[in-house]
Every structure is written in structure tokens, then in C-alpha cells.
Amino acid sequence: MVERVSKTKYNFEHPAGDYKKIFETVEELSEPLPATLTGRIPSFIRGSLLRLGPGLFEVGSEPFYHLFDGQALMHKFDFSNGQVTYYRKFIKTDAYVRAITENRVVITEFGTCAYPDPCKNIFSRFFTYFKGVEVTDNCLVNVYPIGEDFYAVTETNYITKVNPDTLETLKKVDMCKYVNINGITAHPHIERDGTVYNIGNCMGKGASLAYNIVKIPSKQKDKSDPIEKSKVVVQFPSAERFKPSYVHSFGMSENYFVFVETPVKINLLKFLSAWAIRGSNYMDCFESDEQKGTWIHIAKKDPGEYIDYQFRTSAMGLFHHINSYEDSGFIVFDLCTWKGFEFVYNYLWLANLRQNWDEVKKHAMIAPQPEVRRFVVPLDPYREEQGKNLISLPYTTATATMREDGTIWLEPEVLFSSPRQAFEFPQINYEMNNGRNYTYAYALGLNHFIPDRASVHPSVLLTIVVCPGAQRQTYCLILNAKDLSEIARAEVGVISPVTFHGMYKP
């Protein structure tokens, strides 16, 4: 990357000088926009690329402060008969509707605290503080199918049913009504028959914290809602009674679940007391402790059964599992990790991301560094003596060693590591390879938390790309999966804010 000096002395610019625009508010569209095509859309692409991210970054005079606070905006590129259109709408969550109606932040988000209505009297404000803060339903992270329906999701107990064709908001669903969870991840696993598995923290036996794997069955013959038949299939214990780990995703092979419990913790006592007494947000309640290390849990899938092997490894950050599979009595699982124990979200405040490029780089220099790691756990760890490597797979250098205290220490094989070069937001050929041995994974080459290798901001393979300085600022890019060469692109003359996750709907 070649840096250039701007008119301001010593201020180095990002190659795409307008990169800050991907963190600015945009308007939804009243109707789909036709895209300008370059190349030829493959005939087998007939459907929609759906993506989610923040689209409203302030309400009235009140800004949102964290990257995960902006109100959910759903994007859609439609492919039909070789033509492409682009459309987007805000999801009409309670958080969004009430914010627009009252022209202020009404519900506390990840890093932005909502304060009582200043127009109310002092007694009303006091009781609002006393009863605590409402949990947000701002579903800006991902979208996935349940039965015949589609849901936009965040990481709380609320999911939002949407129409993937019109992008209309249909219904808010509280998962707490059906299963014992406090929140649920935006990265479920979906089996080939449509069965959905997810994980969320919960209150377990004896008022102790735990993590529940939730199963939502596939679409029902009687047309009933599969969510109503949700159930907990297995429970993982928590390493600490009052401090659950932050969970963003989990692994699933054909016969096992893999749960990685990192040292990034939610201080539950602080969480409850802070919200009941004073204004606070989710970020205020996270803490990290390198001494805690990382605990790795496994469980059988059917029937659900926790396997009490004490797998441990060094402290690390984790958001995304790439894939997990079984091989010759071992479970292999690949992770997009971050070195050390510090919470990466500490570096995703919008004020930091909107700084001049030289300041963004300074933050990246001290932030945790990314690394793709492969771990292997033995399903029968007691067949070998203490101190001996328990892993016998010939194609990996990952190790597992039994210690005197009964713990099994895991050392990973590093699949990719380069300073400030992340392999993140991973994708595989999910339908064919999820839970099975695989060859290829694709990801975003994120650098300094903001892509900077070209004047574009992409995701992966069939992707929305944002190019703030171009005449047509947003386009859908179609890449050949074999060599990542460009097949076609469909451009529109509006800018798109940053997006996080999504799916292709045939």
C-alpha cells in the first residue's frame, strides 16, 4: 500500500479517502434501483443477496457511539433473467420506531446508553432508572431462515421476522418465551433438512450460569411455527458462576458441538446493578482476564450429552468459527482468533473508526492481532499417558497433552498469521461442507479494522462492495471461486454503509 500526504501536514490518508462514509446515515429506498451491469451474470444465479448492517447513526441530536449501535438496515441485490436491482429498507424494530417517533435514543444499544425522556418529571425519570433498561431488538447483524420464514437477528433474545422479497418487517419474537436463554447468537448452524441449532447463555442449575444449545426443528407439515417447538438439547457449564463469556458463534460437526469459552467476560453483577441504578450500556459490563485462559467444551449432538473433558488453551479472542469436522477419533475445528485477551470491540467505537487514517493505524498497532488457528481434540484422551501428544492426525501440527491435574492442554496449528492482516468473516461451501472435512475457506482480508488494499470495502465471493469515491458507489461483485477473478458486477449510484453478515436466498 502506498500512502500519500494530504494538504494537512503529517496526515496520511487511507487509499479510499472517503472511507468514513461507510459509517454515515443513509435513507432507505422507495423502490428497487436497476443496476448497471459489467460482464455477464451466470445463469444459475437467480435469487437475492441479503445483507444487514447499521444505516442510521444518529437520532435527532443524539449520536450512536459504537459500530454495533446504528439501526438495522437490510440490503438486497435481486438477480433475475440476467438483470440486477438493488433495494434497502430499515427494519422497523421497536428500537428504530420509538427512536424515530421520539427523535432520540430510546433503547440502550451495545455502546450507547438511552436516558429517560427529559420532558418527563423527576419522579418518572427516577422510576425509569430504577426498573432498568430495556433489551434492544436492533437486529443489525445477520439474517437466516427458520422453517419457511426469515429472521433478522442481533445477539439478544429478540429476533425479527422479515419478508425477504419486500424487506417489510413482520413480527418481533422473544426467544425467552420458548427456551431458557438470556440471549442467542447471530450465527446458528442449519442442517440440510432445515433444523436450526444455536447457543445462548442462561441461568442453569443452582442459580449458576451456563450455556444452552437450542434446537429449532425444520418446517412443520401442519404449517405451525417451528419456533414454538424449540427445545434445549444440551447444556455447557460456565467457567465462572457470575461471569459468562461473550459468545458470538460455535462449532458443529456431524455428531458434536464445539463451544469455545474465551476470557472476555460479561460481569453479570455489574450488568444488573449498573442498569438498575445508573445509565450504562453493554460495553461497560465487559471485562477480560488473561489468567483465565480459554476453555474448550464438546458435547454429543444426538442425544445431547455434555462430555466433561477439561480442554484448555491460552487466552484468545474469538468471533467466528470457520468449520468443524471429525476424523479418526478426533474433532478438528478452525477458528478466526485474535491474540491475547483484550476485547477487540474496544477498538470499534465510531469515533475511532472515523478518525484520520494515521490515527486508525495507531490504534491498530496496539490492538489484538488476528490469527487463523486449527485446534484438534481427541474423543478418547485417556488412551495415552501424561505428557504425550494425543493427536495422531498426519496433516496437522496441532497438539493435545494431558497434564497432571487432568486438564488437556491444546496448542493450535497456525494456518494464517500476518501483522494486521485478518482472515475474518469466513465462508465455506456451507451446504456441502459444514461439519465435514473441507478444502477451501474464503474470508475478508481485513486490515486495521477497515479494508485498505483498494478503494473498495467488500465482503466475500458474491458480495456487496462499497467504493465511496466512485461515480457508482455500491455494487454487487461476482467472483470466480477458483481464482477470485471477476465474472461480473452490478453497480448502482448510491452509497451503502458497512454491512456485517447475510445470506444468498435462491
Automatic annotation (TrEMBL):
It is a lipid-anchor. One of its GO terms (biological process) is visual perception. GO terms for cellular component: plasma membrane. It is found in: Cell membrane. Fe cation binds at residues 187, 248, 320. Keywords: Cell membrane, Hydrolase, Iron, Isomerase, Lipoprotein, Membrane, Metal-binding, Palmitate, Sensory transduction, Vision. Its cofactor is Fe(2+). InterPro entries: Carotenoid_Oase. Its EC number is 3.1.1.64, 5.3.3.22. It catalyses: lutein = (3R,3'S)-zeaxanthin; an all-trans-retinyl ester + H2O = 11-cis-retinol + a fatty acid + H(+); all-trans-retinyl hexadecanoate + H2O = 11-cis-retinol + hexadecanoate + H(+). GO terms for molecular function: all-trans-retinyl-ester hydrolase, 11-cis retinol forming activity; beta-carotene 15,15'-dioxygenase activity; metal ion binding; retinol isomerase activity. Its main location: membrane. It holds the Pfam family RPE65. Binds 1 Fe(2+) ion per subunit. It comes from the Eukaryota. Belongs to the carotenoid oxygenase family. PANTHER family: BETA-CAROTENE DIOXYGENASE, RETINOID ISOMEROHYDROLASE. This is Retinoid isomerohydrolase. It comes from Bagarius yarrelli.
